[in-house]
């Protein structure tokens, strides 16, 4: 093809920034931000380190370029190159054989990854008959989707606007380091106004340094803080009484519930001062429009995860910061074909839904829970994607692999995720994956999971596949764009894998779109757009509407899509399933003589994305090492020094880090998340240094410490200790990461 410039999009995070690619001889020779497309700001794109790594990402010598079949023992990391046809035929034959012997539930999937599209995986799984997909969704965004839907009838979007927002709270979220892009720019713009910016985080993060007020509560006590704020707002009558009377359900019960959460009582639980609690409540309630943004910091506090989200939802409802400019608004059902219609959850038979692992232990993150919620959202013609609200409990999936209880899981397809690094209890996961009859990895780069796999399939990534972001089907927004070039080598789009596997498993009638682009034509058709016409602007985002509850009709009345038709301060659905209908702080195990400190982890640090991008030299900063952070007082009390190698140990395991002394809550240890070492041998037992400095050596997803309603496991508030590491010898290196053996004769 002639040399040309073409539109494309970065896919190294979910912003999908618009780019222009210069192509010569079918190769991308340079990339520039496209100022005519989202995010319309060249500075944002140029300021992003990942943008500059795109060409290295595309052409990296370690990219997986061909289908590979295991040639040695599992974990030896020896491979034979095979054709796609052979790979798909063999995988489908094995899956059908396993289904015949153990039932469809014997297949599990692990979802994630910046190069994947979620609905094709779920479509395949529902048609195959298995309810067992796992991911880290439960500790990332899922509780807010659930809780806002329970409280307001649908998920919320939050706004931070210099003109309309009067107070902003960033609760357990650190956009300076986890985002460093559009959201962070919005925070910076808001901050120039001098209006209150309150950051709640045990660490003085870069975001906290910007704040007008920084609160550092004891880990895992956020629900108590939110309840204390509710107490102050109600006691001082800082809420709009007419709005509450007209639109809130259960005010009197909430008032009674928070009566005991006095600032003095909450100060004892949280370690904050009474003045901090009172002032935060007053600043929030006095603002004409106030926003609360929250992140993984409060998604992953185990048994208090749902409770803190419920208490924050009550704060938003009680102060009428709902469907209000500069605060929060209810998003809309997509006007294009939504994910719920693409997943085909209705094709998963009832008896298979009942086999989902965790169904008998978790109250709402189940198909039954989803149906309870959907009864109400459908009153406003809305339906959330089922896959996000019905995942299997990972801990039970790993145990079913090892113990065949309550039934055997013998196969897993891992789509762009590395559960061994990113999910709780890495040792358990490593053993579980090694016990399988079939492990397939759809990946971009070799990692500890590909090293254990039977088949590794090369995925197309950023710049070589179309990308469309639809906010998981919970909002009427879509943005994205085309690939710049055809996939290199034998890389393929994940859609192609799921479709072709589906065809080989007898799903012919359900995969009418021959390629991903054709499926996108179908998705956009209700908007009168094709994929090609959509790509001219690359965005569909109608302006938000406010005060919609005044016009939504329910039984002839305006309102919210909840059982009461109002904002549910008292949640009827939680009451139905035997959980507390009012938010409550649950006391959790604290420090002990053996484990005198509290661990927190899971925070995202740019430029990496969890375990991703560790191969890229352009993203490596010299001297960056996995760190354990403590305060100066904590380090001194333990006789530890900055830069020293330390071991962090919990009741679940131990792993090592370099000590960093920072400003943060005393007696708390924050450890980096997502670390592994591609420069080390990928073969077992090292698995790319998967156990060297891996935060998930310290965690567990067991039910004793998880949320009983949605199953969030705990990352923040794990009792731990920390001590000097023994000097270690040199690590082994193995640069032949995908050691291949010659193809066998039958190929
Ligand atoms: S990584 Fe994200 S913010 Fe950075 S250029 Fe790519 S899409 Fe944009």
UniProtKB/TrEMBL annotation:
Top EC class for this record: oxidoreductase
Coiled coil residues, start to end: none
Domain of life: Bacteria
SMART domains in the cross-refs: Molybdop_Fe4S4
Documented EC number(s): 1.2.1.2
Keyword Cell membrane: no
The keyword Aminoacyl-tRNA synthetase appears for this protein: no
A Pfam family the protein falls into: Molybdopterin
4Fe-4S Mo/W bis-MGD-type domain boundaries: 3-62
GO molecular function: acetylene hydratase activity; iron-sulfur cluster binding; metal ion binding; molybdopterin cofactor binding; oxidoreductase activity
Keywords in alphabetical order: Iron, Iron-sulfur, Metal-binding, Oxidoreductase
Family label: Belongs to the prokaryotic molybdopterin-containing oxidoreductase family.
Designated name of the protein: Formate dehydrogenase
Organism this protein belongs to: Desulfuromonas acetoxidans (strain DSM 684 / 11070)
């Amino acid at each position: 093809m002639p040399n040309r410039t073409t539109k494309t999009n970065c896919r190294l995070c979910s912003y999908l920034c618009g780019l222009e690619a210069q192509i010569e001889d079918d190769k991308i020779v340079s990339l520039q931000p496209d100022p005519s497309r989202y995010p319309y700001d060249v500075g944002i794109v140029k300021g992003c380190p990942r943008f500059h790594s795109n060409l290295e990402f595309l052409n990296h010598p370690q990219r997986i370029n061909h289908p590979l079949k295991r040639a040695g023992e599992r974990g030896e990391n020896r491979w034979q190159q095979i054709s796609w046809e052979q790979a798909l035929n063999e995988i489908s034959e094995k899956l059908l054989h396993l289904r015949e012997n153990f039932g469809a539930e014997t297949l599990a999937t692990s979802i994630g990854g910046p190069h994947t599209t979620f609905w094709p995986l779920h479509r395949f799984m529902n048609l195959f008959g298995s309810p067992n997909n796992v991911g880290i969704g439960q500790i990332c965004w899922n509780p807010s989707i659930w809780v806002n839907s329970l409280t307001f009838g649908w998920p919320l979007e939050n706004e931070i606007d210099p003109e309309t927002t009067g107070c902003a709270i960033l609760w357990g979220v650190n956009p300076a380091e986890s985002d460093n892009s559009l959201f962070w720019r919005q925070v910076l713009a808001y901050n120039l106004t001098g209006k209150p910016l309150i950051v709640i985080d045990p660490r003085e993060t870069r975001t906290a340094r910007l704040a007008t007020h920084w609160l550092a509560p004891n880990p895992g006590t956020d629900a108590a803080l939110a309840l204390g704020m509710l107490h102050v707002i109600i006691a001082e009558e800082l809420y709009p009484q007419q709005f509450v009377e007209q639109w809130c359900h259960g005010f009197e019960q909430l008032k009674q519930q928070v009566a005991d959460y006095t600032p003095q009582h909450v100060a004892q639980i949280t370690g904050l001062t009474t003045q901090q609690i009172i002032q935060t409540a007053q600043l929030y309630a006095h603002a004409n429009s106030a926003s609360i943004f929250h992140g993984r910091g409060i998604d992953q506090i185990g048994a208090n995860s749902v409770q803190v989200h419920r208490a924050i939802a009550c704060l938003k409802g009680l102060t009428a910061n709902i469907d209000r400019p500069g605060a929060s608004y209810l998003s809309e059902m997509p006007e294009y074909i939504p994910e719920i219609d693409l997943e085909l959850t209705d094709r998963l038979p009832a008896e298979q839904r009942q086999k989902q692992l965790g169904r008998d232990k978790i109250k709402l993150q189940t198909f039954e829970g989803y149906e309870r919620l959907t009864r109400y959202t459908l009153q406003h013609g809305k339906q959330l994607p089922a896959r996000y609200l019905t995942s299997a409990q990972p801990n039970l999936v790993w145990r079913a692999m090892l113990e065949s209880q309550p039934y055997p899981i013998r196969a897993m397809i891992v789509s762009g995720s590395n559960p061994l690094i990113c999910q709780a209890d890495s040792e358990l996961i490593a053993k579980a994956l090694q016990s399988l009859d079939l492990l397939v990895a759809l990946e971009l780069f070799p990692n500890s999971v590909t090293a254990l796999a039977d088949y590794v399939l090369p995925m197309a990534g950023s710049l070589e596949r179309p990308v469309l972001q639809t906010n998981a089907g919970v909002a009427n927004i879509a943005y994205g764009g085309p690939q710049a070039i055809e996939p290199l080598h034998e890389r393929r789009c994940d859609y192609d894998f799921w479709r072709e596997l589906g065809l080989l498993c007898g799903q012919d009638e359900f995969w009418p779109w021959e390629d991903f682009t054709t499926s996108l034509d179908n998705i956009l058709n209700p908007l009168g757009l094709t994929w090609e016409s959509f790509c001219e602007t690359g965005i569909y985002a109608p302006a938000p509407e406010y005060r919609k509850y005044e016009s939504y009709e329910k039984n002839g009345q305006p309102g919210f899509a909840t059982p009461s038709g109002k904002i549910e301060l008292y949640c009827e659905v939680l009451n139905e399933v035997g959980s507390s209908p009012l938010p409550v702080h649950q006391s959790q195990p604290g420090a002990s003589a053996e484990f005198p400190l509290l661990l927190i982890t899971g925070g995202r640090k740019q430029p990496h994305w969890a375990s991703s991008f560790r191969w890229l030299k352009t993203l490596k900063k010299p001297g960056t090492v996995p760190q354990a952070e403590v305060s100066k007082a904590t380090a001194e009390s333990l006789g530890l020094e900055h830069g020293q190698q330390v071991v962090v140990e919990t009741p679940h395991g131990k792993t090592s880090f370099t000590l960093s002394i920072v400003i943060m809550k005393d007696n708390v240890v924050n450890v980096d998340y997502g670390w592994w070492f591609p420069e080390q041998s990928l073969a077992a037992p090292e698995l790319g240094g998967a156990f060297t400095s891996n935060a998930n050596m310290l965690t567990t997803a067991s039910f004793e410490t998880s949320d009983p309603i949605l199953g969030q496991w705990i990352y923040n508030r794990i009792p731990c200790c920390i001590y000097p590491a023994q000097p270690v010898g040199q690590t082994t290196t193995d640069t032949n990461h995908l050691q291949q053996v010659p193809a066998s004769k039958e190929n």
